[in-house]
Structures are given as structure tokens and as C-alpha cells.
Amino acid sequence: MGFSLKVKTKTGQHILRDVSPSLTLSQLKSQIVEFTKLPPDCMHILVGFPPRKLNMAGLEESIEASGISNGDTLIVEEVAAPEVPAVAERREDALLAAQSAAVAEDEFAGVLLKQVVPADNSCLFTSIGYALQGKVNTDGGILMRQIIAEHVAADPESFSEAFLGRPNREYCAWILRDDSWGGAIEVSILSSFYGLEIDVVDITNAIINRFGEDKNYGQRIFLLFDGIHYDPLYLESLTGGSPRTIFPIEAESIYLQAEQLAKEAQASKQFTDVNRFTLRCLVCDCHLTGQVEAQAHAKSTGHANFGEV
Fold it and tell me: What's an example GO BP annotation here (predicted)?
């Protein structure tokens, strides 16, 4: 029985039906090139949940041997092709113009909205999962926490105690707990793992923090952060269709809309002052004020499960 695969691109979705499990990666790539019209060397393919980069080193390997399963979703990301420096310099203006022309403004006609996810200490991971898969799945954080712990454990020099705020091994045990909150370190690691830019729209300061900006990724997702909680953003199209959560970097209108959303949310004080908000320790019922007191309480007692009052 053949595989059925869903392929997501910036132009829409495609279904590949009755795909033979013995089909080679090279043949699969040729099929994707056929309907996306993307040059083979301008393409990255992500597969699975959470999405991971498909290793295209063995092009004659079967798709089944590569880890692709029936029902999987493939996310096709357009990236810039490598060029000879002299040629790249001469063609820089032409390339930028071509990229701008490739993104039709009416494709992104719509309103950027917030998808509310549970405030359960895993909101960062649930938000990223929603942006990648288009649905709220609170179980996705388990694998993301494992990804982060393995990444940190594998590089104790970069992820030192001075950087993490606690010993490497202690951090790895901490992040695996379902009551541990994620932040900038975790966003940066997940941006690198999934191969896309994660833009955190910070309401408190009305700015956008771009994680992976220096990696020249072709796509980005947006998360809204109010000081303690993350929610994903999606585009509600004016022309109908499914909500969109992954955007090409060159879609400037979406980024500008996210900036405006941050300013409006700050003006209406839709954020939490982390120095003044009141928390209750759900372990010993102790009431605490602000992030500093909560961190000190967690360090002295080992309690790390808090709820906002």
C-alpha cells in the first residue's frame, strides 16, 4: 500500500497519494520540484512532528529508510542557492528584486491574530508546536524539552554554568520537568533545530526579538509574549482558507503587522509586569511578588510550580 504525504509550501498545500515506500529521496525531490517549481538546490525539506530537517545526503535511499512514514507532513522551505562570490555580488540586486516580486501582497491580505494556548508552564512549546502544525497539542512540549536537553548536554562549553545560570547537568534535568518555563535560551535552540526564524513579539517593550536572524532562514513564525506567557500568532486570510502560521522572511507586510500589534498591545497594557505581579507557590501556598522573589523561592525550596494570583 502506498504512502499518502502532505506537502506544505509557502504557496499552499499538496497531497502526494499512493507514494511507494521504496521511492528514493531523489525521486521524491523531483516530484516536489515539479509542482513547487523550486530549483533543487534552493530547497530544504522538514518532516515529522516536531519537524526535523530531512537528511538528503543519501539521495538513493528509500523514503521509508529515511524515516518518512505514511501520513507525514513535509514542510518545504525555500532558501537561497549557494553562489560563487563574484557572481553573487553582481546578481545581488537582481536576486533581491526577484524575491520581492515572488511574494504577492494579496497572498498575505489578512489580520494577524493570537491563538490562545493553555497557561501550563509549557506555553512556549505548545505555541511553537501550533505554529509548526496548525493545532494546539500540549503533548508536543515533551519532545521539545528532550531536544533542548540533548543539545545543551552535548555542548557543555557553550552552555556553561555562567551562561545557563546553573550547572549544565542540573539545567538538563530542570528543563525536562513539565513545570519548568522556557525562554530565550530554549527559543534559540529550537530555532536552530527546526531551521526557521522564531520572532518573539514582546508586548512589554513593544519590540520583536528575532531568534535565528543571522542564519538566513527562509521562513519565520511569530510568538506573542506578555512577560510571562507565550501565544502563537496566525494570519486570518481575507480571502478564506486555513489560518497561516509560517511565513517567508521576505513577507515584510506580516512583520510590520506584528510590530504594530506589539505597539497596540503595549499601549493597552496587555502585559504582565514581572517585577510586580503576584504568584502563589502551588507546592506550599506561599505568596510571592515578582520574578525575583519567585526565583529565590524556587532556589531555596526546590519548588518550581507557580500560579499567577
Answer: ERAD pathway
